[in-house]
Amino acid sequence: MNNDHVFRFHVNGQPVEMQAPPMQRLLDVLRETLRLTGTKNGCGQGICGACTVIVNGQAVSACLTPVVQLEGADVQTVEYLSDRDCLSSLQQSFLECGGTQCGSCTPGILMAATAHLRRGGGTNTEELREMLSGNLCRCTGYIKIIESMQQAAAAK
Questions:
Q1: Coil, strand, or helix at residue 70?
Q2: What CATH number is given for 5-80 in this structure?
Q3: How confident is the model over 63-115, as pLDDT tens digits?
Q4: In this predicted model, what pLDDT tens digit does every residue of 6-27 receive, in sequence order?
Q5: Domain ranges of the chain
Q6: Sign of dihedral through CA atoms 136, 138, 141, 145?
Q7: CA 126, CA 42: separation in Å to the nearest integer?
Q8: Are the C-beta atoms of 10 and 73 separated by less than 8 Å?
Q9: What CATH number labels 89-155?
Q10: Which of 36, 40, 48, 85 is the most exposed place for a label (fewest CB within 10 A)?
Q11: Is 0.90 topped by the overall pTM?
């Protein structure tokens, strides 16, 4: 017996209607069904933050979010941040300040930082360290990442 249901939501401003099992992970929907591969599969347990996306304005782990929770939701992925030929101010700051190294964690960090900055979160180093506590990066000491976020916030 097929347990698939029809779900309707928006991804990066575009309507999505799809049939899926209710507990299918958002991560799999994004990467496999919608071919939005910017969202990375890290730990699969909601610990590393590589799969962070924004759902209804909140940063969430796509690996822990079942599609059943998305009915009517607005989902934004890292692909939403840039406008084809133009990087977002946060992406540009990461480029200028060296906030990216291997790039595996970067999409999740960009999305967590975007959600934080959009809701008016603070930009002092301690607040940004706390905000980043759900995003693991093995290549940096987070200093360049924090500098990138501070530069982007100051540019607004």
A1: helix
A2: 3.10.20.30
A3: 999 999 999 999 999 999 988 789 999 999 999 999 988 889 999 999 999 99
A4: 999 999 999 999 999 999 999 9
A5: 5-80, 89-155
A6: negative
A7: 25
A8: yes
A9: 1.10.150.120
A10: 85
A11: yes
